[in-house]
Specification:
Blueprint lengths: L2 E6 L10 H8 L3 E4 L16 E4 L2 E2 L2 E2 L3 H13 L3 E6 L9 H10 L4 E4 L4 H8 L13 E5 L8 H9 L4 E5 L5 H10 L7 E6 L7 E6 L3 H4 L7 E5 L6 H4 L18
Helix pairs in contact: 2-3, 5-6
GO biological process, one term: siroheme biosynthetic process
Enzyme class: transferase
Keywords: Methyltransferase, Porphyrin biosynthesis, S-adenosyl-L-methionine, Transferase
Length: about 260
Protein backbone atom coordinates (compact mmCIF):
# COMPACT_ATOMS: atom_id res chain seq x y z
CA UNK A 1 0.00 0.00 0.00
CA UNK A 2 1.25 3.46 -0.90
CA UNK A 3 0.45 6.77 0.71
CA UNK A 4 -1.20 10.05 -0.31
CA UNK A 5 -0.12 13.52 0.75
CA UNK A 6 -2.75 16.25 0.40
CA UNK A 7 -0.51 19.29 0.08
CA UNK A 8 -1.28 22.99 0.01
CA UNK A 9 1.05 24.64 -2.50
CA UNK A 10 0.28 28.17 -1.35
CA UNK A 11 -1.21 31.05 -3.33
CA UNK A 12 1.32 31.63 -6.12
CA UNK A 13 4.72 32.75 -4.87
CA UNK A 14 6.64 29.43 -4.82
CA UNK A 15 8.63 30.55 -1.78
CA UNK A 16 5.45 30.39 0.30
CA UNK A 17 5.19 26.59 0.23
CA UNK A 18 5.97 24.90 3.55
CA UNK A 19 9.09 22.82 4.11
CA UNK A 20 6.91 19.76 4.63
CA UNK A 21 5.04 20.46 1.42
CA UNK A 22 8.31 20.68 -0.49
CA UNK A 23 9.44 17.34 0.97
CA UNK A 24 6.19 15.74 -0.20
CA UNK A 25 6.91 16.96 -3.74
CA UNK A 26 10.47 15.66 -3.64
CA UNK A 27 9.53 12.15 -2.53
CA UNK A 28 6.47 11.65 -4.74
CA UNK A 29 6.19 8.96 -7.38
CA UNK A 30 3.17 10.74 -8.85
CA UNK A 31 2.02 14.34 -8.48
CA UNK A 32 -1.57 15.34 -9.23
CA UNK A 33 -1.62 19.13 -9.47
CA UNK A 34 -4.23 21.85 -9.88
CA UNK A 35 -4.54 24.93 -12.10
CA UNK A 36 -3.45 27.49 -9.52
CA UNK A 37 -0.30 25.63 -8.49
CA UNK A 38 2.84 27.48 -9.53
CA UNK A 39 4.50 25.11 -12.01
CA UNK A 40 7.92 26.13 -10.71
CA UNK A 41 7.26 23.87 -7.72
CA UNK A 42 7.20 20.82 -10.00
CA UNK A 43 10.90 21.37 -10.68
CA UNK A 44 11.58 20.03 -7.19
CA UNK A 45 10.13 16.61 -8.04
CA UNK A 46 12.19 13.53 -8.75
CA UNK A 47 13.22 13.09 -12.41
CA UNK A 48 11.29 9.83 -12.29
CA UNK A 49 8.07 11.37 -10.98
CA UNK A 50 4.99 11.43 -13.18
CA UNK A 51 2.67 14.43 -13.37
CA UNK A 52 -1.10 14.45 -13.81
CA UNK A 53 -3.04 17.68 -14.34
CA UNK A 54 -6.35 17.85 -12.46
CA UNK A 55 -7.07 21.53 -12.86
CA UNK A 56 -10.45 23.21 -12.70
CA UNK A 57 -11.36 26.63 -13.99
CA UNK A 58 -14.69 28.45 -13.67
CA UNK A 59 -15.90 27.19 -17.04
CA UNK A 60 -14.28 23.80 -17.43
CA UNK A 61 -13.14 20.89 -15.31
CA UNK A 62 -10.37 18.92 -16.99
CA UNK A 63 -11.03 15.99 -14.67
CA UNK A 64 -14.22 15.48 -12.64
CA UNK A 65 -13.63 15.39 -8.90
CA UNK A 66 -14.92 11.83 -8.70
CA UNK A 67 -12.27 10.72 -11.19
CA UNK A 68 -9.56 12.47 -9.21
CA UNK A 69 -10.72 10.67 -6.07
CA UNK A 70 -10.61 7.30 -7.84
CA UNK A 71 -7.16 8.03 -9.23
CA UNK A 72 -5.76 8.78 -5.78
CA UNK A 73 -7.07 5.48 -4.46
CA UNK A 74 -5.89 3.48 -7.48
CA UNK A 75 -2.36 4.89 -7.45
CA UNK A 76 -1.95 4.38 -3.70
CA UNK A 77 -3.17 0.78 -3.97
CA UNK A 78 -0.36 0.20 -6.49
CA UNK A 79 2.11 1.04 -3.75
CA UNK A 80 2.98 4.52 -5.01
CA UNK A 81 3.66 7.67 -3.02
CA UNK A 82 1.18 10.22 -4.32
CA UNK A 83 1.29 13.96 -3.72
CA UNK A 84 -1.96 15.77 -4.41
CA UNK A 85 -0.76 19.34 -4.93
CA UNK A 86 -3.46 21.95 -4.47
CA UNK A 87 -3.37 25.73 -4.70
CA UNK A 88 -3.59 27.52 -1.36
CA UNK A 89 -4.69 25.24 1.46
CA UNK A 90 -6.30 21.86 0.72
CA UNK A 91 -9.01 22.30 3.35
CA UNK A 92 -10.07 25.86 2.45
CA UNK A 93 -12.28 25.67 -0.65
CA UNK A 94 -9.88 23.09 -2.07
CA UNK A 95 -11.98 19.92 -1.87
CA UNK A 96 -9.25 18.36 0.21
CA UNK A 97 -11.84 17.28 2.76
CA UNK A 98 -13.72 15.34 0.09
CA UNK A 99 -10.54 13.60 -1.03
CA UNK A 100 -9.58 12.78 2.56
CA UNK A 101 -13.02 11.24 3.12
CA UNK A 102 -12.56 8.90 0.16
CA UNK A 103 -9.06 7.92 1.24
CA UNK A 104 -10.27 7.18 4.76
CA UNK A 105 -13.17 5.07 3.45
CA UNK A 106 -10.74 3.05 1.34
CA UNK A 107 -8.26 2.70 4.23
CA UNK A 108 -5.54 4.50 2.29
CA UNK A 109 -2.82 6.04 4.50
CA UNK A 110 -2.69 9.81 4.01
CA UNK A 111 -1.37 13.02 5.51
CA UNK A 112 -2.65 16.57 5.17
CA UNK A 113 -0.02 19.28 4.70
CA UNK A 114 -1.62 22.70 5.23
CA UNK A 115 -0.75 25.54 2.90
CA UNK A 116 -1.04 29.33 2.98
CA UNK A 117 -4.46 30.21 1.64
CA UNK A 118 -4.99 33.17 -0.69
CA UNK A 119 -7.52 34.62 1.76
CA UNK A 120 -4.59 35.50 4.01
CA UNK A 121 -1.74 35.86 1.54
CA UNK A 122 -3.34 38.02 -1.16
CA UNK A 123 -4.49 40.72 1.30
CA UNK A 124 -1.11 40.60 3.06
CA UNK A 125 0.77 41.18 -0.22
CA UNK A 126 -1.65 44.02 -0.95
CA UNK A 127 -0.88 45.67 2.41
CA UNK A 128 -4.15 44.66 4.05
CA UNK A 129 -4.09 42.81 7.40
CA UNK A 130 -7.28 40.80 7.72
CA UNK A 131 -7.36 41.56 11.46
CA UNK A 132 -6.14 44.63 13.30
CA UNK A 133 -6.65 45.71 16.89
CA UNK A 134 -8.15 49.04 15.81
CA UNK A 135 -10.24 47.84 12.87
CA UNK A 136 -11.22 44.17 13.00
CA UNK A 137 -11.22 41.40 15.59
CA UNK A 138 -13.02 38.88 13.36
CA UNK A 139 -12.60 37.53 9.85
CA UNK A 140 -14.58 35.08 7.74
CA UNK A 141 -13.43 33.11 4.72
CA UNK A 142 -16.43 32.64 2.46
CA UNK A 143 -17.23 31.67 -1.10
CA UNK A 144 -19.15 33.75 -3.56
CA UNK A 145 -20.67 30.57 -4.98
CA UNK A 146 -23.15 28.99 -2.60
CA UNK A 147 -24.88 25.65 -2.90
CA UNK A 148 -28.37 25.40 -4.28
CA UNK A 149 -30.90 25.05 -1.51
CA UNK A 150 -29.21 27.61 0.73
CA UNK A 151 -31.21 30.77 1.32
CA UNK A 152 -29.05 33.40 -0.38
CA UNK A 153 -30.51 36.34 1.52
CA UNK A 154 -30.06 34.65 4.89
CA UNK A 155 -26.50 33.66 3.96
CA UNK A 156 -25.45 37.22 3.15
CA UNK A 157 -27.49 38.78 5.97
CA UNK A 158 -25.46 36.73 8.44
CA UNK A 159 -22.23 37.93 6.81
CA UNK A 160 -23.32 41.54 6.43
CA UNK A 161 -23.97 41.88 10.15
CA UNK A 162 -21.33 39.43 11.39
CA UNK A 163 -17.55 39.28 10.83
CA UNK A 164 -15.82 42.63 10.46
CA UNK A 165 -13.59 41.40 7.62
CA UNK A 166 -14.80 39.22 4.75
CA UNK A 167 -12.38 37.39 2.46
CA UNK A 168 -14.46 36.17 -0.45
CA UNK A 169 -13.22 33.46 -2.79
CA UNK A 170 -14.65 32.82 -6.26
CA UNK A 171 -16.74 35.95 -6.20
CA UNK A 172 -15.57 38.17 -9.07
CA UNK A 173 -18.41 37.29 -11.45
CA UNK A 174 -20.91 37.78 -8.66
CA UNK A 175 -19.44 41.04 -7.36
CA UNK A 176 -22.49 43.21 -8.24
CA UNK A 177 -24.81 40.76 -6.51
CA UNK A 178 -22.53 40.43 -3.48
CA UNK A 179 -22.31 44.20 -3.02
CA UNK A 180 -26.07 44.55 -3.32
CA UNK A 181 -26.79 41.75 -0.85
CA UNK A 182 -24.33 43.10 1.71
CA UNK A 183 -25.67 46.66 1.56
CA UNK A 184 -29.30 45.56 1.46
CA UNK A 185 -28.69 43.52 4.60
CA UNK A 186 -27.00 46.19 6.66
CA UNK A 187 -23.41 46.84 5.55
CA UNK A 188 -22.70 50.49 4.92
CA UNK A 189 -22.26 51.47 1.26
CA UNK A 190 -19.09 53.26 2.41
CA UNK A 191 -17.44 50.01 3.56
CA UNK A 192 -14.00 49.72 1.91
CA UNK A 193 -13.48 46.87 -0.58
CA UNK A 194 -10.35 45.60 -2.33
CA UNK A 195 -9.92 43.10 -5.14
CA UNK A 196 -6.51 41.45 -5.37
CA UNK A 197 -5.91 39.75 -8.72
CA UNK A 198 -3.22 37.04 -8.94
CA UNK A 199 -2.15 37.74 -5.38
CA UNK A 200 1.52 37.10 -4.45
CA UNK A 201 2.57 36.79 -8.10
CA UNK A 202 4.55 39.34 -10.10
CA UNK A 203 1.30 40.03 -11.97
CA UNK A 204 -0.58 41.02 -8.82
CA UNK A 205 -3.00 43.90 -9.29
CA UNK A 206 -5.06 45.52 -6.55
CA UNK A 207 -7.99 47.89 -6.89
CA UNK A 208 -9.77 49.59 -4.00
CA UNK A 209 -13.18 51.18 -3.62
CA UNK A 210 -16.32 50.88 -1.53
CA UNK A 211 -19.38 48.69 -1.71
CA UNK A 212 -21.02 51.58 -3.51
CA UNK A 213 -18.49 51.91 -6.35
CA UNK A 214 -16.21 48.86 -6.47
CA UNK A 215 -18.19 47.20 -9.28
CA UNK A 216 -17.28 49.99 -11.67
CA UNK A 217 -13.72 50.32 -10.40
CA UNK A 218 -13.06 46.58 -10.69
CA UNK A 219 -14.77 45.99 -14.02
CA UNK A 220 -11.50 44.89 -15.65
CA UNK A 221 -10.49 42.49 -12.86
CA UNK A 222 -10.81 38.80 -13.74
CA UNK A 223 -10.49 35.54 -11.83
CA UNK A 224 -8.56 34.53 -9.87
CA UNK A 225 -9.01 37.40 -7.44
CA UNK A 226 -9.64 37.71 -3.73
CA UNK A 227 -12.33 40.13 -2.56
CA UNK A 228 -11.66 41.76 0.82
CA UNK A 229 -14.47 43.69 2.51
CA UNK A 230 -13.95 45.68 5.70
CA UNK A 231 -12.34 48.64 7.41
CA UNK A 232 -8.93 46.95 7.31
CA UNK A 233 -8.75 47.82 3.61
CA UNK A 234 -8.10 51.45 4.65
CA UNK A 235 -4.64 50.40 5.86
CA UNK A 236 -3.46 49.62 2.34
CA UNK A 237 -2.50 53.24 1.65
CA UNK A 238 -0.20 53.21 4.65
CA UNK A 239 1.40 49.75 4.59
CA UNK A 240 1.29 48.62 0.97
CA UNK A 241 4.70 47.06 0.34
CA UNK A 242 4.73 44.47 -2.43
CA UNK A 243 4.21 46.84 -5.35
CA UNK A 244 7.25 48.87 -4.24
CA UNK A 245 9.65 45.95 -4.56
CA UNK A 246 11.95 45.82 -7.60
CA UNK A 247 10.97 43.29 -10.24
CA UNK A 248 12.56 39.99 -9.23
CA UNK A 249 12.60 36.97 -11.49
CA UNK A 250 12.34 34.77 -8.39
CA UNK A 251 8.83 36.07 -7.77
CA UNK A 252 6.25 33.53 -8.91
CA UNK A 253 5.16 33.50 -12.51
CA UNK A 254 1.76 31.87 -12.57
CA UNK A 255 1.00 29.89 -15.69
CA UNK A 256 -2.28 28.25 -16.48
CA UNK A 257 -3.40 25.34 -18.58
Amino acid sequence: MGKVYLVGAGPGDPDLITVKGLKAIEQADVILYDRLVNKELLNHASPLAKFMYCGKDPNHHSLPQEDTNKMLVSLAKKGLTVTRLKGGDPFIFGRGGEEAEVLAEQHIPFEVVPGITSGIAAPAYAGIPVTHRDYSSSVAFVTGVINKGIDKDEYWKHLALGPETLCIYMGVKKLPEICELLTTNGRSVDTPVALVHLGTSEHQKTVVGTLDNIVEIAKDIENPAMIVVGEVVRLRDQISWFETLPVDEAVAKLTYQ
